[in-house]
Amino acid sequence: MIQTFLRVLCVSVLVQSYSVEMAAGEDKPVKKLILPGESFLLDGRPAFILWPSKEKRQQPQPWIMYSPTLPGTPDSHEKWMHEQFLASGIAVAGIDVGEAYGSPAGQKLFTALYRELTKERGFATKPCLLGRSRGGLWASSWAIRNTDKVSGLAGIYPVFDLRTYPGLNRAAPAYGLKSDELEAALDEHNPIAKIDVLAKAKVPVFIIHGDIDKVVPLKENSATLVERYKQAKAGDLVKLMVVEGQGHNYFPGFFRCQQLVDFAIQRAKFGGIVLSDGLSAEQTDINARDTSYQREQKLPDLKQPILDTEPGNLNDGIAVGSLAQCGCDEEAIAQLVEDIDSGKYGNIDSLLISANGKLVLESYYRRGRADFPHYQMSITKSITALAIGRAMQLGYIKNLNTPVVDYLKEIDRAELASGAAEITVADCLNMHSGLRIPKEKAEGALRQAVKLEGQGQAQMILAMSDPITATSKSYKYQGTDPSLVMQVVEAVVPGTAEKFIKKEVLGRLGISNYAWQPDVSGLPKAAAGSSLRSRDMLKLGRLVTDGGKWDGEQLWPKDFILNAVSPIYTNKAGHSYGYFWWGSEMEFGGKRHHCISARGAGGQFLFILPTLDLIVVVTSHNKDKAMRYPFEFLAERILPAFASE
Question: In terms of C-beta density within 10 A (0-12 exposed, 13-18 middle, 19 or more buried), how is residue 187 classed?
Fold first, then answer.
């Protein structure tokens, strides 16, 4: 009797009509949901979304793609679990594919749901997949064919082997095959036969499974998945929690597993990471439009990538080592380099890795050149912050809480917007100036180029803003704030900001081969506009890692560097902002790693992982969502390669 009940739990099609009714007076189908949400028909099948409360929703919306969604699922046993997802701002969605058993027909419907949510509803491009029981077939089969669209895979006693459930005789019709034909094609269709695809793509997995499960045996399903991951040298990416004495049932521990919930939330949030503040098209405000990207478009692609796993010593202040001797997973990095060259991550131009203080990988692709400066876009802001820090070290600036206008002697305070005279240098460095300039006013000001020269630009910015209020002094990523910071540099240093940066900022690090576009003011552009060689980007990372020291000399105040990379402001996605420098958290093998970064549109990144003494430089010329690729392969491939023991 018990065995019959357990098999019915997984095998039965739940002999009942769909819980889909027609709402009175509406054409809209309604599926009975366990939590607030909406349901709808998609390609003729019932689909649904469980929504977090409005104040917790995000753009893009992180989400979990749940399965199975037969008429009775998700059910009351899973209510607590889904409540945790919604409370964390994570939506849950699914589509009823019927008894498709992971077949192409079912995968097609999963893809339809994915497109509806990501293209039409603003959902994140990489959901976490959660499969319960037969839902494991649904989730894993789609994930295997869409590894670039998956942030993680979670399962509650999930099925991965068609032979154990539902058996080839029952599954064959869903594939349009006879039983013997499906058996002959198992290597193509059976998820467990292709788990290495997920492992090689570094898709993290968390599973909870009972050790006496007779319906979905642990050994042939979840345990085999773990073994396949280990064979692919990705064992650290999968966690299997075995519940002793439990089979295929409603044991609360399966559905109230905090570790599984935490994993799904963390992976869904990762899939919803938006780097738009640091990567979006530059907000020019009253600034010159950046032209470095356009200039670089004329550079021809390399015919062959340039790869050096034992970089040469160029006597440029960068210590060098060997990838083979740095203690990382060399094979994993080699595969990453191959994938970058193949175009899997779009238009990557360079990848440099420094481990334990030594450059161990130097590689260039497409428009990347060892001796040609690559545009940096918003990384220019991070360098501008370093200019302020260097001015403080030399005594030109005493206090960042000093109002900006106290340094700008040519400003007519009588013409300023209400509250503008109280904006401090620190406010600008953290994008909390409160300035709000209507677009039409900014566009009009740009047509008056003469009036924007010198401190005229600052005058316009501070005068044309709407009144500064407690409400407006919230975080807003914009070009006005760094422009005011550069105005302060120009005002306090001997000579000009341009010469100061050349001598005291970049010059102190031995950086001479660079470019820096002037702003409408004539000062160096602060929001974007610089170009640096990839090796020189690495120097900036070393300077921050060493707390402002270079070649043993304290050239920047240590406290300033610490404040610059501290989480003064943190957004909903968990990304923090200091003084034009970013921060985020990454996790691998149960350990958290803080990542400091400078970011630029097109996919320019300087990553610093202090816990591993790891610095990674990436340049790209990607667009839109592809700009995030470097952030993804840092978390999913480089971190595991260097964090594994």
Answer: exposed
Tokens 């990557």 map to which residue? 348
The pLDDT of residue 349 is 96
Collect the ranges in the chain with pLDDT lower than 70. Answer: 1-30, 273-284, 293, 446, 449-450, 645
pLDDT of the residue at 29: 47
CA distances in angstroms from 154 to 67, 140, 234, listed in the order given: 11, 9, 16
Count of alpha carbons within 13 angstroms of residue 137, beta-carbon side: 29
pLDDT at 72: 87
pTM of the model: 0.73
Measure the CA–CA gap between 638 and 418, rounded to whole angstroms.
49
- Rounded to whole angstroms, the Cα distance separating 27 from 57 reads 27
**Residues composing the chain:** 645
Sign (positive or negative) of CA dihedral 645, 591, 220, 110: negative
DSSP 482-519: HHHHHHHHHHHSSS-HHHHIIIIITGGGT--S-EE-B-
pLDDT at 276: 46
Residue 350 sits at the vertex; the CA angle it makes with 344 and 356, to the nearest 5 degrees, is: 110
Separation between Cα atoms, residue 632 and residue 202, nearest integer Å: 10
**Alpha carbon distance 380, 372 (integer Å):** 17
Cis ω before 46 (30° cut-off from 0): no
